[in-house]
Design a protein that fits this description.
Layout lengths: L8 E4 L3 H12 L5 E4 L13 E3 L4 H11 L4 E4 L6 H14 L3 E4 L11 E5 L2 H7 L6 E5 L15 E6 L11 E5 L6 H10 L4 E5 L8 H9 L2 E5 L8 E3 L2 H8 L9
Parallel strand pairs: 1-2, 1-4, 2-3, 4-5, 5-12, 6-11, 7-8, 7-10, 8-9, 10-11
Helix pairs in contact: 1-7, 2-3, 5-6
């Protein structure tokens, strides 16, 4: 392993927070590597050497960490990338490597919000067992197939990449990359006559506009709660990660 004085971190990315941290790492000349899941066709350019794709579970990740002489792991994956976070925790425990999560705080309901909490995607599908509505389905491309069980609704989809096929017989797709604005999401939802929003509680500012727009329009939201993640040190501040790599006192939540 490299000397603790010469950190060689692996950044598990794919979020706005990860991109912000990647810029800080590159600017500081730290020999970091970035890993992306590869779910988007054209990810935003990054200032760090980048690998794309899975590792082959926790064991594969542990082999990669060992072979690449990684000294620290930063988990800045999406809050719903639970399996990757579990793999990271398991691999770091096996190698006795320090792990820090760069996460984002979840959204909290405010006055005027009409949230119905559901535990997962299956819960959201079950909650849509109702007469046809115009639904803004903001859950990402990977979960569309599950909602084919409720084909009566007219779905508005917003995706980073245009899908090759959509398993929903009544749907319209808007291809766009965040961050989004309140004015833009108000206009989008009004134009499509949205009556219900389905969203993951991703947290952060980049995608909260649809939640604020639903609040302003008085629309109900099916809010998919976050999965349970491993216990690990955690911060919401990319600068705290830099201090962690410099072995300074962070006040990081444990």
């Amino acid at each position: 392993m490299a000397s603790p004085d010469m950190p060689r971190p692996l950044l598990l990315g794919g979020t706005t927070e990860a991109s912000a941290l990647a810029a800080l790492l590159a600017g500081a000349g730290i020999a970091a590597r970035l890993s992306l899941a590869g779910r988007t066709k054209a990810p935003a350019a990054q200032p760090l050497p980048t690998r794309t794709g899975g590792f082959g579970g926790a064991e594969g990740l542990a082999r990669y960490l060992h072979d690449q002489r990684i000294t620290h792991v930063i988990d800045a994956t999406h809050p719903f990338a639970a399996q990757m976070s579990r793999n990271a925790a398991q691999a770091c425990a096996a190698l006795n490597l320090p792990l820090l999560a760069l996460s984002r705080a979840p959204w909290r309901a405010q006055a005027g919000d009409r949230w119905q909490h559901v535990p997962d995607i299956a819960g959201a599908v079950a909650a849509l067992d109702r007469p046809a509505m115009r639904v803004f389905l903001a859950v990402g491309r990977m979960h569309l197939e599950a909602f084919a069980a409720q084909p009566q609704h007219h779905y508005l989809l917003r995706l980073i990449d245009a899908p090759e096929a959509v398993p929903l017989p009544r749907s319209e797709c808007v291809v766009a990359r965040g961050p989004f604005t309140l004015a833009g999401d108000l206009a989008l939802m009004r134009a499509h006559g949205t009556e219900l929003v389905v969203a993951k509680n991703a947290g952060g500012p980049g995608a909260v506009a649809k939640i604020a727009a639903a609040r302003q329009l008085g629309l109900p939201v099916l809010m998919i709660d976050r999965p349970t993640l491993p216990d690990r040190a955690e911060t919401h501040d990319p600068r705290a990660v830099m201090r962690w790599l410099g072995h300074a006192d962070l006040g990081v939540k444990t």
